[in-house]
Amino acid sequence: MTKDQGTPSRNDLQELKERSFMLLCVQAQLHFMRGADGGGLEDLQGQVEALAQEMSSELEEHLQLCQELATAKEDAARIQQLCEEELKDLAEDSEGDSPETKRRRSNFDDEEDTLAELNQMAAAEEAEIGRLQRLSDFEEQLGMPRIDMEEDQVTLGRPNEETEALCTVQVQWDHGRLLRAEPHPALRLDREAQEAVAAEDLGRLLGAPRLVFVWDRTGAQPQDL
Q: pTM surpassing 0.70?
């Protein structure tokens, strides 16, 4: 079975990993909105309440789907190899529709079905990501901060060179679970970081008032906090 026939590639699985980070971004946006200090956010809360409730009910299932797709990498590679071997054996088989040939064809059909299921999961994932991207765009229109999530760090807003360190949180993940979160020492957010890790909820930390303050006033210096 070739990649043209739909077998998930390494790049596909890496893209799914990046999309799971996008989900965490949206979750963090919700916590930020609840934790930020400002009357304007309260006025806008009614506009996003329905979207927030819908997304909250789907986040856990969606993250689980991302994990299942990520762990399917080895299975997909194994199935591809088996398919290629079966095709080669069938091409070399000169016994017609012998019991062995029928068995091989049956195994090949099962493997094709498994690949089809994986492709359906990927299509569902693509549709869900599109919906969440639209939600993220809507939040940005409402004035919510941009949250850039990478494998080892999270950056709040669009800071300049002087404030980038203050707006960056060093993180460590394990299949979607938050293992470590370290904000800039000048913010003195050790307790909030520990609580976020204990709850496996990065949004709690990103919504901390002192971090929100840095985002709101990107010119703030450590001695001003």
A: no
